[in-house]
Design a protein that fits this description.
heterodimer, A: 208 residues, Arc Repressor Mutant, subunit A, Glutaredoxin, 2 domains, 8 helices, 44% helix, globular, B: 426 residues, alpha/beta, Rossmann fold, Ubiquitin-like (UB roll), de novo design (two linked rop proteins), four-stranded parallel beta sheet
């Protein structure tokens, strides 16, 4: 894909956030993923050009961080937390069943390009364990069944909404634009907090 | 009985708590207005007097950290907020930012004024799309309302999946556009931090605690907590409990008290082991139910308060499996810069995999402890130290369980029994 003048303007606005241009590498890599779906060689070259770096310098950064994908992921990228607490609470069972159900392994994509699967590390939602993420949106308190239903809804083109997130699950590319720091106008959607987040406050109001 | 004391979480139950309007309804941005009218040194002194200590794990006094920034040096100063919440079990900053991002922005304004910085950066982990939206929108709204942009700028920087970037100097390298690897210290960030300029790096909860301190005063904050651990903090309870969640309480509350509030360990089961502050803090057992959860109390009992991430595991959980999984995490997240951590975590995983499968020998336990001894204190940063905590503490308390794997020739536990779904009604 070719990057348009408008794309270069967006990249310029990202660079201008920082006192020094090199700091923009990470949001620019997210931006490249929002355009191409993953970190392409072309994307690396474009970033190197706008930051006046060598392509190797950009690649060195890109390969350090697990969210930058060297190959295409699905329209909906599903991460199952298998760090200790979620794994014990059911994350291992969920991950195994999704691999079976989708017929793919870790870091693989379904043939229709809809869903990819990855086992992820702790995603800071342990009071909602077991946790599944899709395009890095929260799906709290999952079971084997609910996770299967979730990926089925994705393959049917009508993904279930996140538990704590916008009213509709955005695509991987759209989420990547948010992670490049671009505002998609959905911040006001969804709950301000789930029940576990509010538990202590609720008990305190009951005099505890 | 210690009473809960919601300060940070006081208005999270209001549906628009994350908006500027919702925040202003409860006096939002009056603390920054008050602080901006004060002498910066007086702000630092007030935060020192409050006794606020870092909530990111190390517990360093926040006001003292601000006081280390050289003044009159004609250099740019920076505030960097560590929102890269990734320590296993830790889940306090993420819900805080989802429910109330403005309190962090107000804290940034106050801290920038105190350390004479014009620029604050919020480094948030990349795996939380909706939290990124909320913080980004809050920053935009603060600019539109003229709260930001009048001498203080806040920039949101979004990470990309690297636990190590929660280490403050790795975070700075990452923010400068490099691979996130820790720096040798000295020089410390207060002297040469972001872009080699004097920099304060603070955790989200630390900075978010500042507006209430400015508003209500140091004495008010001092009135809560214990002798050396002042104020309130977020305790995050997760795992095999009836009602997991966030509990904001004065420092020094005990796990027994929090478990009582949460309805206890799930019915028919009993507490086996837990972390007081994430997976990098040595494990506790039911012998530590009455340990005061403040910086001193937890340290005296042989662990660390850390991030107050209370992960609860009942007797259905295999401690070897739990420790192996954490160790695989540290191996995966080791940045590779220093040899003890890069090579050591790899060997720890190999040995633990054998032990968990019942294939090792008792001599492997000694080898594990020897490896830990060679990683602990010999690594560039605390990741290596943290990797040894679950191993050494689990062997200390559950040596018999490691041996049982060897005598069984396999793991003696049924993993189904420890899941949330199998646990229902069990």
């Amino acid at each position: 894909m070719a990057y348009s003048d408008e794309d270069f303007q967006v990249m310029d606005s990202i660079i201008k956030r920082y006192p020094r241009s090199r700091s923009a590498i990470m949001p620019l890599l997210h931006y490249v993923q929002s355009k191409a779906g993953y970190v392409t060689n072309e994307g690396i070259e474009v970033i190197a050009k706008v930051l006046q770096l060598e392509a190797a310098e950009v690649t060195a950064v890109s390969t350090f961080y697990t969210q930058y994908k060297p190959t295409p992921v699905g329209e909906y990228h599903v991460g199952v937390c298998t760090n200790t607490l979620c794994a014990v609470m059911g994350g291992d069972a969920i991950f195994d069943s999704l691999k079976d159900h989708l017929g793919i392994g870790n870091d693989e994509v379904t043939a229709d390009g809809k869903v990819s699967l990855e086992h992820i590390e702790c995603n800071a939602a342990c009071d909602y364990a077991p946790v599944v993420m899709a395009n890095w949106e929260f799906y709290d308190n999952q079971t084997v069944e609910s996770a299967k239903e979730l990926v089925d809804s994705m393959r049917a083109g009508n993904p279930k909404p996140p538990t704590r997130g916008p009213n509709k699950l955005v695509t991987w590319k759209e989420a990547s634009a948010v992670l490049a720091g671009l505002n998609d106008g959905l911040a006001h959607e969804g709950v301000q907090a789930g029940e576990p987040t509010l538990l202590g406050l609720k008990l305190s109001k009951e005099g505890k | 009985m210690t009473k809960l004391a919601p300060v940070l979480s006081a208005h999270w139950d209001e549906k628009d708590s994350f908006t500027l309007e919702g925040y202003k309804r409860h006096g939002g941005y009056t603390a920054s207005a008050k602080a901006l009218a004060m002498d910066p040194d007086a702000v630092i002194q007030l935060v020192k007097d409050s006794g606020l200590r870092g909530r990111g794990g190390a517990g360093f006094p926040t006001g003292m950290k601000w006081g280390f920034i050289p003044q009159g040096d004609n250099k740019d100063h920076y505030l960097v907020v560590n929102a890269d919440e990734s320590e296993p079990g830790t889940c306090k900053d993420t819900p805080l930012l989802m429910a109330n991002p403005h309190v962090l922005i107000e804290g940034c304004i106050i801290a920038c004024h105190a350390i004479r910085a014009k620029h604050a950066f919020i480094y948030i982990r990349g795996e939380v799309t909706h939290v990124v939206r909320r913080v980004n929108q809050a920053i935009e709204d603060a600019y539109a309302a003229g709260i930001l942009g009048n001498g203080i700028d806040v920039v949101l920087h979004i990470g990309a999946g690297a636990y190590i970037c929660g280490e403050e100097t790795a975070l700075l390298d990452s923010l400068e556009g490099f691979r996130g690897q820790p720096r040798l210290r000295p020089p410390f960030p207060a002297i040469a931090g972001l872009y080699a300029r004097p920099t304060v790096v603070n955790n989200v909860e630390s900075i978010a605690s500042v507006p209430a301190i400015i508003k209500n005063g140091a004495e008010w904050y001092q009135s809560m907590g214990t002798e050396k651990s002042k104020g309130t903090t977020l305790y995050s309870l997760s795992g095999h409990v009836v009602n997991p969640g966030q509990f904001e309480a004065p420092l020094g509350i005990t796990l027994r008290e929090i478990l009582d509030l949460a309805g206890g360990v799930r019915p028919g089961h009993k507490l086996k082991f837990w972390t007081p502050g994430g997976s990098s803090t040595p494990l506790f057992t039911d012998a530590h139910l009455d340990t005061p959860l403040d910086y001193e109390g937890v340290a005296a009992a042989g662990s660390m308060l850390g991030t107050k991430a209370l992960q609860i595991f009942d007797e259905t959980t295999c401690v070897v499996r739990a420790v192996l999984r954490w160790t695989e995490f540290y191996k995966h997240e080791s940045c590779g810069k220093c040899t003890p951590c890069r090579e050591g975590t790899w060997w720890l995983v190999q040995i633990l995999r054998d032990l968990e499968a019942g294939k090792g020998t008792e001599a492997d336990l000694a080898k594990l402890l020897d490896l830990c001894d060679n990683i602990m204190g010999r690594s560039f940063c605390a990741l290596g130290d943290g990797a040894t905590s679950p191993i050494t503490s689990s062997i200390k308390y559950f040596r018999d369980e490691y041996i049982a794997h060897l005598t069984h020739g396999a793991c003696p536990f049924d993993p189904v029994a420890s899941t949330l779904f199998a646990g229902a009604g069990a």
